[in-house]
Amino acid sequence: MKETVRIVVDAMGGDNAPGEIVKGAVAAVKGRSDIHIILTGLADKIEKELSRYQYPDGSIEVVHTSQVIETAEPPVAAIRSKKDSSIVVGLTMVRRGEADAFVSAGSSGAVLVGGQAIVGRIKGIERPALAPLIPTKNGVSLLIDCGANVDARSSHLVQFAKMGSIYMENVLGVKHPRVGIVNIGAEEEKGNALVKETFPLLKECTDLNFIGSVEARDIPAGVCDVVVCEAFVGNVILKLYEGVGSTLIEKVKSGMMTSIRSKIGALLVKPALKKTLKTFDASEYGGAPLLGLKGLVVKTHGSSRAKEVENSIYQCVQFKQQAINEQIMAHIS
Amino acid sequence: MKETVRIVVDAMGGDNAPGEIVKGAVAAVKGRSDIHIILTGLADKIEKELSRYQYPDGSIEVVHTSQVIETAEPPVAAIRSKKDSSIVVGLTMVRRGEADAFVSAGSSGAVLVGGQAIVGRIKGIERPALAPLIPTKNGVSLLIDCGANVDARSSHLVQFAKMGSIYMENVLGVKHPRVGIVNIGAEEEKGNALVKETFPLLKECTDLNFIGSVEARDIPAGVCDVVVCEAFVGNVILKLYEGVGSTLIEKVKSGMMTSIRSKIGALLVKPALKKTLKTFDASEYGGAPLLGLKGLVVKTHGSSRAKEVENSIYQCVQFKQQAINEQIMAHIS
To answer: What does the pLDDT read at residue B258?
Structure first.
């Protein structure tokens, strides 16, 4: 049997906390026996939720914390002042080696800032990167970086490419992941100063399957597995994905309601369509890992329900058991 | 009656040239009497197309050019070496004042490079900007800049905001256009170095209705009329719009084909849906003006058909008759 993976789950984070978070944690320990969950947050609220379920003895532990970091709080100040919050206590357990991973659906800013400040970077990693999975035509791609630190240097982007490639190969099982850099044209001489500087560096990396420039138009078609860009561009891509998707789906729905004929048709296509569109919903793909830290920190969508929490926990198990951080260290040094 | 507007149309540019280009030009002169069209390109091919239509005497003129710039050619070299191409001859007519505007569905690069090099910038304009209209939930927004020059300075972005605002107000009739800057958060302190530097400058512009930062997620919802960003980000937004849209529509179509029930439904919703989705197709909104030049240059989509060419021609008329360039000059000095 494989080694048990100890995962701290922030029971207070996200729109559906603590109910859906606790439910997801219970599902995970029932689904696999090599998981130990530590729930951080207000103990009485967590215990109340836990009392509704049956699960293996000793598989879930509660660590009481008295403070909660709200989504709107300025992250740096929140991390500094709320030492007894579910986020700070959880991240501290990872730093101390008392847990292998931390999962939160709470404040992105606080998780990012806290991850760097408390857990700390792997030696040699210049900047950690937030790397969500985005849906494509027939699967998913890893978009790296979508973090809070913008204006990256070329050396950062090269590290992002390596970490992203290791993650896709070992956590998602993609053989020789295709790595592309976001650019405004396919030719090597195109791009802004950062891309032009990074391109030849990526070409030299013998440990990468670098396929060159990728235009934004081709990202949803799934032309590469690891989409490398600096965080400003990554944020624009991630959020525009969501924005175009939801506006277009609204248009499809309202378009179906314009005549009696189409209304009847809508009733017939609805179930099949719903299933298909679900495959294009970014929130379906578990959490975004913050790669490059000494322990694993995973940020799940603020609107996560039990299923996403459960999936994020499984992601952590895979991450630990595949020794991703050891591989990152080997490729960086 | 209003002054006649003289518009050069590149009859050789785009996937459907010369057939659809000529057809669109004919439709325009039949639609309005204040338009004079000059078609540049291989005269025998153009005349052959023209012979298929009836149109007012003297409303269309053909200027023969012996060379054609292909889409794949390096733009700078093409503009320099092909002096007798439909693009170079057309742009030269605008520079000499023999025409008010130039419309092309040909090589974007050549039109951008040629526009700057041949027509030239308005005095005081540091960098011209390519500004396509993008579809939103209930209308369109102007995305400025999507041009070929990346790594802009804050002073460029301020000029983009002003030119875009004048265009939306006078060509599209939007009163007090809402101007937003693309950012990764709503707060003023967020963003990369360029956005942080530009934000206070835009706030100071009393001639702008500046609404602050706009997240990419909210662009498709239509939260602002003028979306300001540097060209790398603009290109990513424009192309991702197209990419997410087409992948999602493919998903919708295949989703409808998964069962007998949904196939029947698909037949019923198809006509209504097609009409709705057309409103979210960027190619429906005419051409993208290259703002900041001494004359008007409009780039239409490479796949443009007669309707888009006709609409681009009307856009030019509005641009000239509303004296957009005179207004830009007044706001820049």
So the answer is: 85
pTM score, two decimals? 0.92
- Please tell me the distance from the alpha carbon of residue A31 to that of residue A172, in angstroms, as a whole number: 19
Over residues A289-307, the mean pLDDT reads 93
Q: Min CA distance, A277 vs chain B (Å)?
A: 7
- Within 10 Å of residue B254's Cβ, how many Cβ atoms? 13
Distance from CA of B227 to the nearest CA of A (A): 13
CB-CB under 8 Å, B271 with A266:
no
Q: Rounded to the nearest 5 degrees, what angle is found at the Cα of A275, between the Cα atoms of A274 and A280?
A: 90
Report the alpha-carbon distance of residue B78 to residue B88 in Å, rounded: 9
CA-CA distance, B69 to B270, in Å (whole number)? 39
Residue A227's identity, in one-letter code, is V
Interface with A, mutate which of B274, B276, B281 (most A CBs under 10 A): B276
Smallest CA–CA distance from A109 into chain B, residue: B185
- pLDDT below 50 — which residues of chain B? none
Contact yes or no for B258 and A276 at CB 8 A: yes
Helix, strand, or coil (residue A237): helix
Separation of CA A23 from chain center: 20
CB contact set of A260 (below 8 Å; sequence gap of 6+) = none
DSSP 8-state code for residue B67: B
Query: Other CB atoms closer than 10 Å to residue B26's CB: what's the count?
Result: 24
- Chain B positions touching A132 (Cβ under 8 A) are none
**How does pLDDT run across A43-102, given as a tens digit for each residue?**
999 999 999 999 999 999 999 999 999 988 889 999 999 999 999 999 999 999 999 999
Long-range contacts of A80-86 (CB under 8 A, 24+ apart): A85/A12, A86/A10, A86/A11, A86/A12, A86/A13, A86/A40, A86/A41
Q: What is the DSSP string of A83-119?
A: TTBHHHHHHHHHHTTS-SEEEE-S-HHHHHHHIIIII
CB A94 within 8 Å of CB A86: no
Cα B286 to the chain's mean position, in Å? Answer: 7
Residue of chain A whose alpha carbon sits nearest to that of B185: A235
β-bridge mates for residue B64, sequence order: B41
Task: Look at residue B283 in the predicted model and tell me its pLDDT.
Answer: 60
CB atoms within 10 A of CB B318: 15
| Distance, CA of B19 to chain centre | 21
Residue B330 contacts by C-beta under 8 Å, 6 or more apart in sequence?
none
Least CB–CB distance from B276: residue in A136, A251, A273:
A251
Q: Is B192 close to A232, i.e. CB distance below 8 A? A: yes
Please give the interface size between A and B, counted as residue pairs whose CB atoms are below 8 Å apart: 196
**Side chain identity, residue B227:** V
Q: Comparing C-alpha atoms, which of B158, B278, B287, B298 is closest to residue B226?
A: B158
Whether A213 and A199 have beta carbons less than 8 Å apart is answered as yes
CA distance B56 to chain A (A): 40
The string of DSSP letters for B297-312 reads EEEPPTT--HHHHHHH
Is A261 within 8 Å of chain B by CB?
Answer: yes
B52 Cβ contact list (under 8 Å, min separation 6): none
Write the DSSP assignment of B22-45 as a string of letters. HHHHHHHHHH-SSEEEEEEE-HHH
Token pair belonging to A121: 């970077």
Q: Shortest CA distance to A189 belongs to which of B75, B301, B129, B87?
A: B75
